[in-house]
Amino acid sequence: MARPRNNPGDLAELPTELRTDRPKGDQIREILENLTRSLAVGTVLPSERVLAERFGVARMTVRQEVDRVVAEGLANRRPGGGTFVAEPRPSRMLASSFSQDMINRGIHPGAKVLEHRVGAADEDLARELEEPIGTPVLHLVRLRTADGDPMAIERTTLSLQRYPGLDEIDFAEKSLYAELSTRYGVTLGMVSASIVAAPPEPGDAELLEIDKSTPCLIITSAPRTAADQVIEFGRSIYRSDRYDITVAYRAT
């Protein structure tokens, strides 16, 4: 990801005043959107104070529109570094592997293993995995990156009774779904998921290198094989300022 440049967007390119026949917030948002499309990735945008003074509006009005542009993924905030033009964010099909999806877009996927632990399924987890209580499971937590930039924290649990030896694999170097396919013959079938927009927990925000107020996507899912067997139970957090989730479905 390009780092913020020190030269803010040229104010000469901005209108000198707002129209009186349209809401001021809408106009400021359009100005910011146009700036993010015309300036190079990493260029620092004019500050909230500068924009508020130029257009004679409350700083809170400007902040609300900056928040919207950030939520749309057109700009990023960096603590102490201002707001800058963001790189176009990748979009992932929900029913796909993170690694393969990034590779398909010419982006290098990466992973840092934060937790790799064997445990036993309690009542709730056994129900989600459709396995007996006490079944040995692998708890796997990874920080996922795209070209080195943090994108998501994926937390998942898999049955070691169903996938014996899975706990012996180093998933800092291996794709989970590639290993499931080659070692265990897993073919992805139906994926149902709950997607909720929410701010990150403080620890997750630090790992993702985002502000605590940045909206994130919390995805809870239990994908199944083509034979209708639960593959994993996961609850992951994705940066919504850098990532889109695409859901494909067939109307009946």
TrEMBL record:
Database matches in InterPro entries: Bact_HTH_transcr_reg, Chorismate_lyase_/UTRA_dom_sf, Tscrpt_reg_HTH_GntR, UTRA, WH-like_DNA-bd_sf, WH_DNA-bd_sf
The keyword Disulfide bond appears for this protein: no
Top-rank taxon, per record: Bacteria
A Pfam family per the record: UTRA
BP-aspect Gene Ontology terms: negative regulation of DNA-templated transcription
Record flagged with keyword Metal-binding: no
PROSITE patterns for this protein: HTH_GNTR
Key words, A-Z: DNA-binding, Transcription, Transcription regulation
Region (Disordered): 1-23
GO molecular-function terms, A-Z: DNA binding; DNA-binding transcription factor activity
Annotated ranges, domain HTH gntR-type: 22-88
SMART domains reported for this sequence: HTH_GNTR, UTRA
Protein's name in the database: GntR family transcriptional regulator
Species per Swiss-Prot/TrEMBL record: Kribbella kalugense
